[in-house]
Amino acid sequence: MLVAAALCPCPPLLVPEVAAGAAPELDALRAACLDAVGVLGAARPDRLIVLGPADEAGQGRYPQGSVGSFRGFGVDLEVSLGAAETAPDRELPPSLSVGAWLLSRTDWDDAPVEALGVDPSLPRDRCLELGRETAAGAPRVALLVLGDGSACRTVKAPGYFDERAEAFDAGTARALGEADTAALAALDAEPAAGLQVSGRACWQVLAGAAEGAGLSGRLLREEAPYGVGYFVAAWS
């Protein structure tokens, strides 16, 4: 059963070493992410699962101790998904590496941890089913859910400007802040893909996991500093 969730964006720029001189611009976002992750430990879960969008090579499950790095972003920095239980056989994708970095900043050691790289185009029904399966995996499950909103908020955004982006992000922020599983389940994959929303599938996995859990939510942060929607929320 799902007992808590933290929702955070996953730009590698969250890691100060990657952001370099621009690091102070995201200080408030980092602080909100760490506050959200703190909610997970307070829920005393039996298992923590980190969810993040991943390309085809990065999809699937990762055991505790899996390692990621930010070398692809010009920084010789490695992160580990908790203490190693088995020798990792592949590297965490970028979103899950950001999740591992966030956990390392909170000294997470409250429960076993694993990760799941999710196809951003996974159909809604399969997302919901995966969420239900995930929540049923232990008596008390917590989720750290990574994903960004629209990448089309300004003309300098990665996806250029799209007039639909602000409204999409506003609705998403409301749903995440209110733990509105019905609204998250109703997110349309087609416009989300057009707006380069990386978090849609992971949020719908969360919606499936939270069915019947009675969780309440708080929106801790919402911003779009680089034309990309970033949301931080905590469910408990």
Word description of this protein:
The chain is of the alpha/beta class and 236 residues long. The protein has a single domain, classed as Protocatechuate 4,5-dioxygenase, Chain B (3-Layer(aba) Sandwich). 33% of the residues lie in helices and 20% in strands. It has a 7-stranded mixed sheet with strand order 3-6-2-7-1-9-8, sandwiched between helices. Strands 4-5 form a two-stranded antiparallel sheet. Strand 8 (217-223) and strand 9 form a beta hairpin.
How many extended strands? 9
**Superfamily at the CATH H level?**
LigB-like
Structural class: alpha/beta
Q: How does the overall form come out from the CA principal axes?
A: globular
Order of the strands making up the biggest sheet: 3-6-2-7-1-9-8
List segments where confidence is low: pLDDT < 50 over at least 5 consecutive residues.
none
Total individual domains: 1
Distance between the termini: 12 Å
Q: Helix amount, in percent?
A: 25-40%
Please report which band the strand proportion falls in: under 5%, 5-15%, 15-25%, 25-35%, 35-45% or over 45%. 15-25%
Which CATH class applies here?
Alpha Beta
**Mean pLDDT across all residues, rounded?**
95
The second-level CATH architecture is 3-Layer(aba) Sandwich
Main beta sheet strand tally, sense and closure: 7 strands, mixed
